[in-house]
Amino acid sequence: MFARIGRFAADHARAVLAVTLLVLVGAGALGFTAFGKLQAEGFTDPSAESTRAADLIDARHGGSADLVFLVTADTGTVDDPAARQAGADLTARLAGDPALTGVTSYFQAGVPALRSDDGTQALIAAHLADEGGENTAVEEIAGSYTGDTGAITVDLGGRAAVGQDVNEQVGRDLLVAESIAVPVILILLVLVFGSVVAALLPLAIGGIAILGTFAELSLLGSLTDVSVFAINLTTGLGLGLAIDYALLMVSRFREQLAAGSSTRDAVIRTVETAGRTITFGAVTVAVALSALLLFPQYFLRSFAYAGIGVVLIAMLAALFVLPALLAVLGQRVNAGRLPWRKSAPTTVSSFWGRVARTAGRRPWLVGAPAVLVLVLAAAPLLRVEFGTPDDRVLPTTASSRIVGDALREQFPGDDSRAVQVVTTGPVGAGDAAAYTQRLAAVPGVADVVPSAQGQRYAVITEEESRSESAQRVVEDVRALPAPPGVQALVGGDAAVLLDSTGSITDRLPLALGLIALTTFVLLFLFTGSVLQPLRALVFNVLGLSATLGVMVLIFQDGALSGLLGFTPLPLDTSMLMLLFCIAFGLSMDYEVFVLSRIKEAHDRGLGNREAVVDGLSRTGRIVSMAAVLLAVSFFAFGTSGVSFIQMFGLGSGLAILIDATIIRGLLVPAGMRLLGDRAWWAPAPLRRLHDRLGISEAPAAPPERPRVNA
User: Fold this and answer.
1) In terms of residue numbers, what domain contains 224?
2) How far is residue 393's CA from residue 580's CA, in Å, rounded to a whole number?
3) Whole-structure pTM over 0.90, yes or no?
4) Are residue 269 and residue 382 in the same domain, yes or no?
5) How many CB atoms lie within 10 A of CB 680?
6) Which keywords describe this protein according to UniProt (predicted)?
7) Which of 103, 104, 339, 582 is deepest in the core (most CB within 10 A)?
């Protein structure tokens, strides 16, 4: 199959490139409309009790306050005549705005809870009348009502404002990240490939993958909810995979040219070998990401949409477009060669060959310290805490973050973060009073504020809304018997966190089982061995555990928080799941890269130890270079102003580097040495199954074996 693809790309190269250009223009035009269709939320389970409670409050009780206006007196207190008059005028304007409903103001109601402890600030809460155009509405409201009026300064916060601020921050961060990553990657690519023309090929494939996925997200954004954060994954993963695939293809193409093959034959053999490896690697990454489709949060499903799309498009571009480019370029792939490079760089690395030989001779001496380092790095996972994003993921200068900090520090009686209880029908006065008493008796509850109709209760606690103690309050409230004849639904921040974490943990075994099973099957089809997939799974879990442990140390415990400028918080459960799937998929991608050359050498008749040395010497340089370049692409997101995007970028980059060095460089050769010839073992029935269904490349004359000094 891959030989046929190679022949097609070589024989119809210009036609392939012309069609690609036309498709790319259309994808670009459609793709740039995606930004206006994507959402900044999606962290909640739509079927959870907390979500149903919020929907009921919106439908029957005017909705929860999703906008909070923080009014600060420029001088004195908010009760001074000038500040009070300005606050009253602002309240009247907000009440008359058709975009808002349920306006509640300190300057109108005089509720003490809406006034700060020191008297310098007050609150006005409101609900968006139409949440369909939420981002645009919030932007217009912020432009109309915030700023310094002379007597008061107004800042906008609340759930909807946080979403808008995050949306804008992500857009700015994307430009900053790409302005850093692309030039750095281009310079590194020129150094790696040794020529300008070859260095531009990964960027071409990356551009195709990114624009194609933007078009996909635009289409999906018209049909369903898609998270704006999928853009970050698209750019980082699209550019990174393009680098991986181009390094593999171009290196193999150059190797064939150096062996005396014609351009056409070199293209065919490159697709036949490297194309097979790329396909297995891409399918493995896509399978890992497909597990995200099992979760109800559209934040996670959006990463599956983007990740699967960008992986498959990058794979197709590498299988068809890149060979067509190579067929047209031929020897000119080395054009623009660096002055100090007299020839194209070789793919054979004596360094990685020596590392593999040393690990093969002393597997315990090399492997045991590597495992110990990974286990120690994973240790902080034992104290991991989970949370959901709030305004504290933003910089302290963001308007919604300013409001959030003020609510936490100056408004202890504010009920916007209370546990919200709503009944599905009317409740009699006596039953409502009895239910209020039961709520007030729950440990940790400071006050209960029932509505006039007795259908809604604000349960105010003394605990921070995302703490474990606040979640226990939610569990205790849910355990109470509801008033007769109705059902009581419990919502609020603590309930959302409890439900979101529960929905992920409930589906986690199924997701992990799917990833493990499909990875095992794919690697078995690739190698014909049952021990190779098991070894790969164990090593990858070690590397991922170490990465997640370091993320706990940095983003929960606060190491490097001063340098990176974020607020330490419990880790977002959704982002941890995303990081696991991305890192696992990319780790398996590199596993396939290395294992393909080891198997190729083993199939040529080399012994297990020599096959490992041969395979690692031929792939070690490619994998390490690809890892550095891909890590740069992800590390650029460390400049983000949104802390969980920082965690995603730094975690992905770290996982890639750990995998390319400790796992591939040390543990793979040590593990293969300990397994010996058993590494390729499979029971006879599975061996026969592999002979029928497994995919293997066509035989070809082997290139010259690398000479590696002991």
Assistant:
1) 2-40+165-389+499-693
2) 20
3) no
4) yes
5) 21
6) Cell membrane, Membrane, Transmembrane, Transmembrane helix
7) 582
